[in-house]
Structure prediction request, 161 residues.
Amino acid sequence: MSSTLNTALVILQPQRLPPAARPAVDSFVASVSGPAALPITQAEPADSASKFSVDSLNITATKVRLMERAGKEFGVDLTEYDSVSSYGSAIKNAVEAFKRQSPSAIAEIERQLGLDQLGVPLDTLVNAIVDPQHSDRLDSALKQHAGGQGGHPDDLGLYVG
Prediction:
């Protein structure tokens, strides 16, 4: 394995989950990161370099942390769901219920999650959880935030200089 792939595995491993919860987290990371999470077999050098770049890994790790934190914010535990889709649907339902109860508090949650710094609304994050293959807007915001800034996470899990 290359050192970049080893680094990816270290970055993307969950920190506080029991071993029994790991399959749900592994499938979550794999679905969020897409084909880049698969082992390289006969990839073209340029293709594999872009998929396994440090920037790509930072974006994926940040996206996974944001998705997990959103779940925690709304009392949805990843380990209780068999798929990312069902996890995302549960978060979406919780967000919709919260909006009906307290629509003005959404901005505070966006601030707590750091979404205001990214310039994306909570709905964009929720949609990226529900359908990780269509998270272009979130990916773009994370790349823009990481570009021109350093490579270490701040308290919100966003990469800063």
Notes: The mean pLDDT is 73. Residues 54-73 form the longest helix (20 residues). Residues 3-160 form one domain.
